[in-house]
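Good morning,

Attaching, inline, the backbone tokens for the sequence recovery test we're adding to the shared suite. The designed sequence is right after.
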């Protein structure tokens, strides 16, 4: 990454409860937020597409929502908690954050806190979900992305890929597949219950045949660094290294991601993908709802 590339946002004015004195606990006051973080702008500049850029409007809105609802006594606490929230919710490796309170000190124009914080690798800390359908797939996949966006914070979305059925009946319609990266929420078991509910909502019928046609199939592929099987859920998903419809959409959004238990990145694993007979064709990308 070019270390000189940065996104900055200056003097975002937000009103909140902040301070230790009784009157400060009753009336909202203005604070100013300054954000600055490194980002490689070359891809977004070349393609001129918002999908390739960091959406700083979303970051600003998230900061506003968090600060407006906050009731901290110290600027130090507000700065620390806001930094943790932004690093956790967005694809930001590190963050320079300034929180200031104009007029808080008599004779001083402004006073505040200036911090630098580093987050986890945004690719490694996410849950990766596989979506598939071969019954009216455009309709059901769109519904699924909309439903998931209402329940989880979506960070990345791949194109839809048309893939040939693997092991299914002769003449079976091709599948459409895509991968989403979302911020972890709850446990794998609670997330699976949510995914099962969305499948049923889209008309998924119970079947013992794993190769059967389906309106919607939702699977957890990776969850952070988790490895192994617990409660009937395996990480990484057993199809990750065997199915083109899993590895190639995942490769699109996280090529440098190290797959737990393998010691290799997705781009390294894809280079040695064993079954070249599996046909896959990239189609189009769905938008992530605001």
């Amino acid at each position: 990454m070019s270390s000189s590339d940065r996104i900055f946002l200056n003097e975002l004015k937000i009103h909140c409860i902040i301070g230790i004195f009784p009157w400060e606990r009753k009336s909202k006051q203005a604070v100013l937020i300054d954000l600055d973080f490194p980002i490689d702008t070359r891809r977004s500049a070349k393609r001129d597409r918002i999908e390739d850029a960091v959406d700083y409007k979303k970051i600003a809105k998230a900061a506003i929502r968090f600060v407006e609802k906050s009731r901290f006594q110290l600027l130090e606490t507000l700065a620390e908690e806001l930094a943790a929230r932004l690093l956790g919710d967005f694809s930001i490796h590190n963050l320079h954050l300034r929180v200031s309170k104009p007029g808080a000190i008599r004779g001083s124009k402004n006073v505040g806190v200036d911090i630098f914080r580093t987050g986890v690798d945004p690719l490694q800390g996410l849950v990766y979900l596989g979506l598939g359908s071969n019954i009216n797939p455009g309709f059901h996949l769109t519904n699924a992305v909309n439903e998931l966006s209402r329940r989880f914070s979506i960070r990345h979305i791949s194109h839809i890929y048309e893939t040939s059925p693997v092991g299914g009946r002769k003449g079976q319609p091709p599948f459409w597949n895509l991968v989403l990266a979302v911020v972890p929420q709850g446990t794998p078991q609670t997330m699976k219950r949510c995914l099962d509910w969305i499948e049923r909502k889209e008309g998924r019928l119970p079947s013992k045949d794993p190769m059967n046609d389906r309106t919607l199939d939702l699977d957890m592929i990776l969850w952070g660094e988790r490895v192994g099987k617990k409660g009937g859920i395996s990480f990484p998903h057993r199809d990750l290294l065997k199915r083109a419809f899993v590895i190639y959409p995942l490769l699109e959004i996280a090529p440098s991601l190290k797959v737990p238990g393998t010691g290799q990145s997705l781009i390294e694993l894809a280079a040695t993908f064993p079954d070249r007979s599996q046909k896959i064709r990239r189609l189009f990308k769905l938008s992530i709802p605001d």
